[in-house]
């Protein structure tokens, strides 16, 4: 079959699936544009932070563990064994030191970098919740007063801020994961008026205009006719842009992760191990969800991607922990499960990778994701596991973590800063 024929079939499949997506019931909090997304339901002890979204709106990709809340829950293999200076146990879930260990990263760096977070709606507790997280883990304070933290609306103004859109847990996850990767970085939170693609795109442009060196986007919507209208808003040479690949395994890739101007971030399951690294990873795929991957029917294949079975842009490029079962600890007082929670999804991996890029201090290398395709010696090649829908691609690299490049984990996960 010719590549042109394959592309034509992909376009037809995308249109058919988007048009016929069934209504699915979710346990998540209703969000802007609540409606059918066609995404599968998750395990009963996981809820989607932002609910569903109708066409023209994006959904965030954070998954909250409801069985690990407020410091309560079963201590799993991912729980840290360290304690705070006061001698009390740290929250369940991975903290900054765990992730530094897993990804061989320094605990400081990134001075002069500003990582922007793009989200929908206002979280009035964002700065206060961030302070709890950073104090708990001994990270330097990041506040409005000391110039480290700032929060603006999509026009770049500190007031008036938009109304709450149910993304509070997502916002907490985003700022905490940037803090975990790059505690010396400044954080700029840009809050869109709502989760429409138009308003999130404007927030993206505002973040860059305000001096962001990296921009993280933990949201998306299945690619379809019209999504490419906002492609230019995610193309800013000199600024590194990371985007979550999604939480629903192999299938239609999500916008804006499908763009060639961004780094699409997949996800892994991360566990401690008795090996030289001290950790092991596999592609994330279980009843909680799976790292998004797929072959674009709308975006041409960039020259720096050479995988054989996808004639278009292949998602993802790089990865980090995203499985809620092995997820990070997050402090959030404004969501439906206030307090310390464990949150996963590729909403965790995208801001973390943005923080790693900032830690290395080379955002200008990321006009696109091509740099990850030449620096694989500094990445952990994730081999094993699939993104929960392996039969959909016949055992292919598009949904299975294999040696070298694959869809769920891209070229791998950070192993120090050499690849950044």
TrEMBL record:
- Span of the signal peptide: 1-27
Stored InterPro entries: Peptidase_S8/S53_dom_sf, Peptidase_S8_Ser-AS, Peptidase_S8_subtilisin-rel, Sedolisin_dom, Tripeptidyl-peptidase_I
GO BP term (any one): proteolysis
Q: Cite the Peptidase S53 domain residue spans from the record.
A: 93-420
Keywords assigned by UniProt, alphabetized: Hydrolase, Protease, Serine protease, Signal
User: Key word Protein transport present in the record?
Assistant: no
Q: Name one GO molecular function term.
A: serine-type endopeptidase activity
Tell me the SUPFAM superfamilies matching this sequence: Subtilisin-like (SSF52743)
Protein name from the UniProt record: Peptidase S8
């Amino acid at each position: 079959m010719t590549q042109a024929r394959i592309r034509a079939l992909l376009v037809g499949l995308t249109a058919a699936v988007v048009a016929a997506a069934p209504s699915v019931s979710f346990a998540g909090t209703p969000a802007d544009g609540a409606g059918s997304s066609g995404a599968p339901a998750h395990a009963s002890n996981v809820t989607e932070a932002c609910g569903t979204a109708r066409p023209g709106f994006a959904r965030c990709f954070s998954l909250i563990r409801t069985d690990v809340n407020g410091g309560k829950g079963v201590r799993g293999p991912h729980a840290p064994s360290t304690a705070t200076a006061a001698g009390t146990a740290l929250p369940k879930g991975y903290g900054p030191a765990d992730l530094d260990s897993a990804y061989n990263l320094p605990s400081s760096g990134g001075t002069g970098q500003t990582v922007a977070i793009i989200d929908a709606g206002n979280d009035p507790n964002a700065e206060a919740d961030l302070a709890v997280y950073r104090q708990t883990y001994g990270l330097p304070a990041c506040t409005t007063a000391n110039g480290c933290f700032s929060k603006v609306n999509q026009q770049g103004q500190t007031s008036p801020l938009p109304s709450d859109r149910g993304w509070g847990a997502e916002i907490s996850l985003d700022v905490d994961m940037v803090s975990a990767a790059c505690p010396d970085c400044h954080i700029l939170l840009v809050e869109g008026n709502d989760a429409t693609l138009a308003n999130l795109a404007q927030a993206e442009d505002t973040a860059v205009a305000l001096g962001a060196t990296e921009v993280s986007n933990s949201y998306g919507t299945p690619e379809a006719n019209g999504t490419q209208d906002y492609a230019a808003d995610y193309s800013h040479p000199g600024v590194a842009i990371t985007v979550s690949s999604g939480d629903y395994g192999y299938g239609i890739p999500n916008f804006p992760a499908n763009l060639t101007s961004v780094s699409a971030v997949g996800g892994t399951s991360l566990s401690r191990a008795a090996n030289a690294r001290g950790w092991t990873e596999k592609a994330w795929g279980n009843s909680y969800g799976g790292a998004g991957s797929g072959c674009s029917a709308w975006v041409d294949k960039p020259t720096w991607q050479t995988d054989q079975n996808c004639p278009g842009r292949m998602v993802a490029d790089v990865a980090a922990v995203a499985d809620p079962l092995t997820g990070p600890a997050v402090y959030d007082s404004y969501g439906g499960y206030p307090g310390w929670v464990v949150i996963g999804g590729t909403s965790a991996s995208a801001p973390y990778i943005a923080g790693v890029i900032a830690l290395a201090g080379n955002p200008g290398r990321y006009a696109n994701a091509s740099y990850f395709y030449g620096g694989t010696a500094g990445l952990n090649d994730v081999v094993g596991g699939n993104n929960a829908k392996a039969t959909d691609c016949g055992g292919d690299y598009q949904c299975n973590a294999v040696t070298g490049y694959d869809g769920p984990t891209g070229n791998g996960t950070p192993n120090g800063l050499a690849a950044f």
